Structures are given as structure tokens and as C-alpha cells.
Amino acid sequence: MAALVALQVLCFIPRPSVAQFATGEIPGERVPVVVLDPGHGGPDQGARGPGGLLEKEITLQVATEAARLIEQLLGLRTVLTRTDDSALPLEMRAAVANQASGDLFISIHAGGAFTPTSRDFQTFFFDDLQGMSPPPAEATRPRNQPTQGGRGQPTGDPTWQVVQWEHAQVEFVETSQIFARLLHNNLRTQVAAEGHGIFGLPLLVLRWVRMPAVMLDLGSLSDPGFEAKLRDETYIQRAALGIAQAVNDYHAMRR
């Protein structure tokens, strides 16, 4: 695949316009996989805005648009942990990502608050605040290789040992933090907000993932003003574009 170039936004129109990418693949080169995780779903509605907008709907909308941009503009492959209004436990979200042999995992939310106070977006990476020691060397296992349909199969010795889920994110903490910063910076540019910050927390949906992983909280859905923004398709597209730009910056840095 040809080297990625920096995204350049041209003008603010209903569907964001960006510079074209060279997406040709080098024969035999593995196409990176970005896993997008729309938070909540099914009976788990997440936060609810004053006007009735549901977090589970917004997260799916943003993730779907981000996947479209990442595939069309960057030439990467995307996997969504859910593509409809279905319930999915946290461990299954991590399992989908791990089975897809993902290279990045982005969980998307739009959390509420106890008061209708405005709050900008914020990004999170995994950090065990109580201190987490690395797993024993013998507890590692080969990464799964992708197969048709986004599932994976083990490589090498079929007697491989399973990574303990509690330690799955250990070796990716540093790169996850780097990507959290890239995501924060690109969202700040696209949605014209400063952002609430970048934080490390022991989030289970990140702990169990075997790849750089972050959580993006778009803002407080309890705020009527933010709920109004989320009803604007242009705002959704800008948020999705910020995610795609961060993915582009990350892969350009890793090449």
C-alpha cells in the first residue's frame, strides 16, 4: 500500500472534502485493520439527551461514518463491533477486536452527566491506577492472522498458550497513549472545541484488547446544546473525519 499522506480539509461543506489518498496495495502486504466500537446498544441505551436523543444511536452513527472515511480515503479495513441496535457485552467487544487481528481499537461514547453542564470531548487510554505488572513471558500467544469475514485463526504451534485477559493491554499502553493524543488533537481541529483532556483509566473494554486501544467520549449528552449539535449531520461527519485523520496520522507515524 502506498505511503499515507496527511489529510487536508478543503472546505466546510455538508459532506467533508479531503485530499485524495493513494490506496493501492503492495501485493502480499497486509492491510491494517481498524476496529470501531459503537458504545451501548439494545436495551443498554447509554445516556439520553433532554430531547430524547440516545447515546447508542449517536455512537453507531459516528462509528459507521468513520468506517466509511477510513476505508474510502485511507484504504484500510474496518470492523465494527456492532452494526445494528444489538446488545454486546464488553468481553465480546474485545473478542471481536482480537479475533479480527485489529491494529487499532476505538470505542466511541457520548456520556451523560448528573447536571446539564457543557463538557467537551475527552479521550482515554488504559492505565491501571493500582499498578499492573507485566504478564509472565510464557503467557503470551501469537497474534491471530485475519481470515475471510474478519475472523482470525491461530498461527504457529497449535499448543499456544492464551494471554490472560487482565494483561492483554500491557504491551500497548504507550502506543495507546500516543494515539489518544493524536485523536484528541484531530477532534479539536474538526469540531472546533478545546477538548476536556486525555486521561488514563482502568477501563475494562480497553484492558482486554490486544492492540493500541482508546475510548473517545464525544461530550455530555445531558447538555441540550451538545444534543442539538449531535442532531446535525455535519457535526457527525466532522467528528468522524477527526477519527479518520487520527488513524491516518498514526499509521503514517508507524510506517
CATH-level-2 architecture:
3-Layer(aba) Sandwich
Per the principal axes of the C-alpha atoms, what is the gross shape? globular
- Portion of residues in helices? 25-40%
The helix/strand series, from N terminus to C terminus, equals EHEHEEEEHEHEHH
N/C terminus separation: 11 Å
- Report the CATH C-level class: Alpha Beta
- How large a portion of the residues is in β-strands, by DSSP E? 5-15%
Number of domains: 1
Major beta-sheet overview: 6 strands, mixed
**CATH superfamily caption:** Zn-dependent exopeptidases
User: Count the helices. How many?
Assistant: 6
Describe the structure.
By secondary structure, this protein is an alpha/beta fold. The chain has a single domain (33-131, 160-254), classed as Aminopeptidase (3-Layer(aba) Sandwich). It is built from six helices and eight strands, in the order E-H-E-H-E-E-E-E-H-E-H-E-H-H. The protein has helices spanning 55-74, 90-99, 173-191, 204-207, 224-230, 233-254; strands spanning 33-38, 77-80, 104-109, 122-126, 145-146, 152-153, 197-201, 213-217. The chain has a six-stranded mixed sheet with strand order 2-1-3-8-4-7, with helices on both faces. Helix 1 links the parallel strand 1 (33-38) and strand 2. Helix 1 packs across helix 6 (233-254) and helix 3 (173-191) runs antiparallel to helix 6 (233-254). The longest helix has 22 residues, at 233-254. It starts with 32 loop residues before the first strand and ends with a helix. Mean pLDDT is 80; it is low at 1-25 and 132-162.
